[in-house]
Amino acid sequence: MSTRMVDYIVDEHNIDIESEALKKVKDMIVSSCDHASPNNLKEKCFLYDIVANGRNDLIIHKLFSARADLHRTVYTHAKVKAIERMVVDALLEANDHLRIDSSVDDPAKYWKVLC
Fold first, then answer.
1. Please, what is the end-to-end C-alpha distance for the chain in angstroms?
2. What's the CA gap between 115 and 109, in Å, rounded?
3. Alpha-carbon gap, residue 106 to 81, rounded angstroms
4. Distance CA 29, CA 84 (A)
5. pTM for this predicted structure
């Protein structure tokens, strides 16, 4: 969905971007350093790791270990879970009006639901 969202934003807002640059952005999103041009591979491959580190999960683990702590102590707290259930109930009730379920796979519709 992330690469489709990029395509949608570029198309919807008539962003003038070269196809190679757009391809590079999408490759970075999916962490596809394998598709980088050979000239830039050694010196610029780190850019792909900034967006999505697909080569070295250990770095990601170190960077986000605090997130796991938050998950255990905050996100699963009983009061947080109660609020989460209330939000889900509200979204389910609002779905008849907003048609959230029909826009999940379509970036143009999903974008509007978020606004």
1. 18
2. 10
3. 29
4. 29
5. 0.40
